[in-house]
Amino acid sequence: MAEKSDKHEGAVRTILGLGEEKMGEVVNQLLANEVFVQAMQRTITGSIGAKRNIDKGVSTLLSLVNVPTLDDIDKVKEKLDELEETIGEIADRVGRMKGRGAKR
What we know:
Helices cover 92% and strands 0% of the residues. It has helices spanning 2-32, 34-64, 70-103.
């Protein structure tokens, strides 16, 4: 019974190997075809442009319904980080001033 299983696995591997080989040949032929490559480039460029347009539309829609975008949230986070740093600096200064006042 184990022999049949091994034969089937071997046959499947052989078929898959042939399929991979043929697939590699097809891909190489397609990539060698300048028309195909140009068509793929146009498709990818168009997809990127479409994504940009969708992102712009979603951003506009979110702003219309007063929902912040990820960019808005990132800007708020940056401002909070700046404020936190400033408050830390002020706290340090106050601490130094208190230290000076205690020495008097």
